[in-house]
Amino acid sequence: MSEEHHLGVFEKYLAFWVALCMALGLVLSQVFPGLSLAINSWQIRGISVPIGICLFLMMYPALLNLQLSELKKLMRNPKPIVITILSNWVLAPIVTVVLANMFLVGHDQLIVSLILLGSSPCTAMVLVWGTLAEGNQEQNVINTSLNTVSIIFLYAPIVSLLTGIQNIPIDRGLLLISVLVFIGIPMVLGYFSKRYLIGSRGENWFQDVYKPVVGKVSMLALLTTLVVLFSLNGDVLLTNPDLMVLVSVPLLVGFVVVVGVNLIVTKAAGLRYREGIITTIIGSSSHFEIAIATAISLYGLGSQAALGTTMGLFWEVPIMLGLVYLGKWLNTKGFWKG
């Protein structure tokens, strides 16, 4: 049976829910302008507590999928994993920096926003995209587990390196704190709570009862995060349409370049559809949650960096959904091996 038959209402109508939450957030930012100020004032050492809570509730269920034991399977079929790693940590950051320098000269915060997006491989939503595309979910879990571990160690150094090359100063201590808070804590709690619950209640209870419940919490947290982020950044989005268009150009060109390269490389590597589409999806997507949270931590609410990363979220959802259907269409045309 196709995995698509098991998708819930959220996944089936993801584009609609995302658009609705974005619109709701923008409306709240205008109808209740004091709301964003109140939310933003709740900070600890520059970290937004409301966003931290939302991201934790969204990331924790996803990080329950972290399976360190799966990493032992890396050598069973290393080709798609290697291609994805190179795309996530080499291709995407380089393409991002090149395009940022082509289109965003003089807008340092927008350049940083692209670097934050391009240096953050996705560890959560790709599980949804992979299910929709009916790709190899074992590879998906291995790749997301690997990305979850690697982002802890590589995200801050790569962002620091790329911003340093651009001579753009950032608070590297706050950058590191953002990684630890938004990725490290959910990962550690997810790993140890999973071990404890399986040990005390059993594997079946964990898989059939606990994960579905927290999975629903994760979906609600994602929708809430979208509302909060767009309510927090509503003013800067609506009052800077020129900057929205300006940052959208390198974002969209970057997606086209990275997706195109990944499609060509996976075909040239002789991958089959189920491996090729997962490789392309993971290699072309970004961890917009950590990028947005880090941008707000570094530059604050209403900053151009927050605007740029939020526009990354705005474009990534329809592009990834489009990639799912493009992949299925290419498969019918025999693009990948049978």
Folded structure, characterized:
- This protein has one domain (3-332): Na+/H+ antiporter like fold (Up-down Bundle), CATH 1.20.1530.
- Helix content is 79%, strand content 1%.
- The chain contains 15 helices and two strands.
- A two-stranded antiparallel sheet has the order 1-2.
- Helix 4 runs antiparallel to helix 10 (203-232), helix 5 packs antiparallel against helix 6 and helix 7 (126-133) runs antiparallel to helix 13 (273-284).
Short description:
With 338 residues, the chain is mostly helical. It contains 15 helices and two strands.
Strand order of the largest sheet: 1-2
- The structural class is mainly alpha
Give the strand content: under 5%
Low-confidence runs of at least 5 consecutive residues:
1-5
Distance between the termini: 19 Å
Helix content: over 70%
What's the SSE pattern? HHHEEHHHHHHHHHHHH
| Mean of all residue-level pLDDT scores | 83
Q: DSSP helix count?
A: 15
| Sheet of most strands | 2 strands, antiparallel
What general outline do the C-alpha atoms trace? globular
Number of strands: 2
CATH topology: Na+/H+ antiporter like fold
Tally the structural domains: 1
* CATH A-level architecture: Up-down Bundle
